[in-house]
Structure formats: C-alpha cells, structure tokens
Amino acid sequence: MDFTSVTESWVDGQIGASVYDYGDSEPLTDDLRSSKQKAVEAAYSLGDLSLLKLLAQSKGGLLNSKLRKQTWPLLLSEASVTGSDPPEDPHPDETQVQLDIDRSFVYYPKFEDDEKCAEARQNLSKVIVTVLRRNPQLRYYQGYHDIAQVVYLVMEDVHQSIQVLEKISLIYLRDFMLPSMGYTLDHLEFIPSLVTELDSHTGDQIKEVRPVYGISSVLTWFAHDIPEFDTVCLLFDFILASGTMATPLFIYASLTSLRSDELSNLDPEDIDIINCVLNTFPKTEQETVSRCIQKAQKLASKTMLENYPAWHKLSNYSVLKTTAAQSPQAESPSESILSSNSMSSSATAPSLISSYLSLQIKESEVREENERLARQKLIDKRNQQREQNKLSKKNSSSSISIRRIFFFSLCIGLTSVILAIFISPKDSRSYLTRHFEAGIQGSLQLLHRIATGQHSF
C-alpha cells in the first residue's frame, strides 16, 4: 500500500469533505469508511500523530476496536510513565474497587456464559489494582472502573490495558484521584459558563444550580451514562485526540445546550426541579453524540478556559494547567496536519508527572484540612446558634413566668381586698394584712423556686 498517497488524498479532501463535517447527520458510506480506515492505518504506520489526531476527531472516530487497540497507545505516546512492578502491599481502596468490579460489564459486552464474565471481571480488577498499587498516592473513585472497562475491552490484554489506563490516570484523571473532592468540583465550575457560551437562555436557567449534576459524565468520560460501547469509544477517541481534559467539559456543555427545549419548560425559580432534570442523563444515540462533538469542536475553537473566573480557582498543578491543558485550536483540519507530519518528540517525563502529583498531594492535604476546619466551623456555628435559641427561649419563658407571678400576686391581693369588704370592720385590717403578707411571701417563694430550677411553667 502507498501510505503517502492515501494520506495526501485524505488531506486534500479527495475522498469527501463530509468526513470532517459532523453537521452531516448521515453515517459514513462504506466507501468513505474504507478510505478512512486506510488513512488511519497509514497514519499509524507512519507515526503521523498529527494526522491520527485529526482522524480520531472526525466523523466515525477511529472506526473500530482493532484500530483503537493500535492507535490509543500512540495518542498517549507524548507522555511516559515509569511502569514499575506493583508493590505487594494492597492499596487502601481495593475493597471499593471490588464492589464496583462486581457491577461491571452490565451493558456490554454480552458474554456467552457467566464464566467469561467472571474472567473479564477478574482481569479488570487486576488492571485497576495494578495501576493503583503502582501509584499509591492516587485514590480510587467510583466510576473509575467505567473508564477502565472501556480500556480493557478495546485493548483485550491485561498488560496493555494497564499501560494505557495508567497514562490516562496520570495525565487526564489525576485531579479526580486526590484526597480532596475540591479539585473535581473545580472542573465542574466551568460548565455553566460554557453552556451560556452556547445558549445564553439555557445558561441563565442553570446558573443558580451547583454543577455537581455533571460529575458522573465528566469523571467517567460518559462511560457511566451511555450504554452503547461504540458511542462511548467515539467519545474516548475525541478526548484522547484532543489531549485536554477541557474536552469532556465542552462535550457536556454541548449536550446540555441540546436540552434547551426540555429545560425551557421548567419553572426557572424551581432550582430543585432543574437540578433533578440535569441529574437525569438524556437518552443519546450516536447521531446525538456526533452533534455534541461538532458543537464541542466549535466551542473549543473559540473558547479558552483561562478566560473564565473558574480558571483562577484551579490549582497550578491541575491537569487543566499541566499534562492535559487546553492549547489554541487550529483554524482548519489541513492547518492542523501541515503543522506536524511526524510524531512529536517532546514527551511529558515521568519525573515531571510525579512532581505534579506530589505537589498536588501536599496541596490536597492542606485543602482537605481547610475543608475540615470549615465544616467544623459551620458545625460550631450551628451549635452556637442552637444554644442561643435555647437561651432565648429560656429567657422568654422566664419573662412569661415572672409576668405570671406578678399576675398571680395581684390576684391574691385583689381577692384579699374583696374578701375584706365582706368581713366585719374590726377584723378587716388584720385579715387584709395577713393575706397581703401571704401573697407576697408566696410570690417570693415561687420566684426562688423558678430561679433554682425547682419549678417551671
């Protein structure tokens, strides 16, 4: 095969410009699919990373698992990891890993029998545990197994899956695998602004809702929410080719903007309902995902995350600022290809990734402690408010009690006077005096009992 002619014909658009046009809702024809497959194979054989990235981000992505098995490692080749043997000491999160493994392979694939499924789960567990033991600073999060599952199904080999998953973890997912959840929430803070960029009305509707609704989609690269394997792989192609963790945010914002009709029917004042709807992932077909990718590409071409307020909250060691940072987009596919016709020689060294991770761990510990202190401060404030409410209630009760005492004393005095009228004149003075004295004495005794807590009303 003449790889050069295949590559040139693809770049020159001789096999169909619609390959780059996600606006065309029709799938690739058999001829275009065949031509694209040849182009992917050529890019892989030539080590043309620039062309491979372009093909991965065009309609149909990298087409099938066979090509992905070859090309995903190449898309991750600009960064390297140590790949040391895992220590024997278990990772503290392995119990949770096993719980999630038991829930894996639900949607795909369809195994012939339970033994095949059990074997796949055992291999998946080995892949995840090995990555975690190699990198004990990383913390497992629920949903990580969804990404690992896709990687394993594509690579079809435990060792290769470990290599790919470890790179994805350290380059892209590192922020999500730290002790503090704050780094994850920092990513999600971009979503409302990005949605507003695409659709100002929808952005206004969701701006008051905390964007935790996007957590499962962003953390799992949509593998948790989309039940079709080929569709999920299409998104993985796009994210890996883009080289930035900004891409899942662009995709999610695009998907949310496509729900504008659904959201516009909701009461904008009912934050709970809006949050409930956003937490429900919509049914998506590959055609819808293709539209989202198209919108995400356009958004990425004109939008830099550094222009939004949420950028300044990010750690300087975040993947969004280091290993998976957004770079300016080329204006056209051909410009992207012409900028580089060979695999990049620059690589993110393991020592640099390790440094980022170590700095993030230290920063995360400080952040986690600050979050703990903030929570404790909030608890103390609530307890103080509760005590103040009790004291206020007690003071109010005491005030009522005193009023009752005086009223009671007044009643005794008036009763004494009235009774004195009906008593003989000679006894009236002494009787009245005795009753007034009794009333005063009784009031004083009652006040004393209240003050010492022996009586309450």
UniProtKB/TrEMBL annotation:
It comes from the Eukaryota. Pfam families: RabGAP-TBC. The keyword Transmembrane helix applies. PROSITE patterns: TBC_RABGAP (PS50086). InterPro entries: Rab-GAP-TBC_dom (IPR000195), Rab-GAP_TBC_sf (IPR035969), TBC20/Gyp8-like (IPR045913). Keywords: GTPase activation, Membrane, Transmembrane, Transmembrane helix. Residues 62-243 form the Rab-GAP TBC domain. One of its GO terms (biological process) is endoplasmic reticulum to Golgi vesicle-mediated transport. GO terms for cellular component: endoplasmic reticulum membrane. The chain crosses the membrane at residues 405-424. GO terms for molecular function: GTPase activator activity. This is YALI0C24332p. It comes from Yarrowia lipolytica (strain CLIB 122 / E 150) (Yeast).
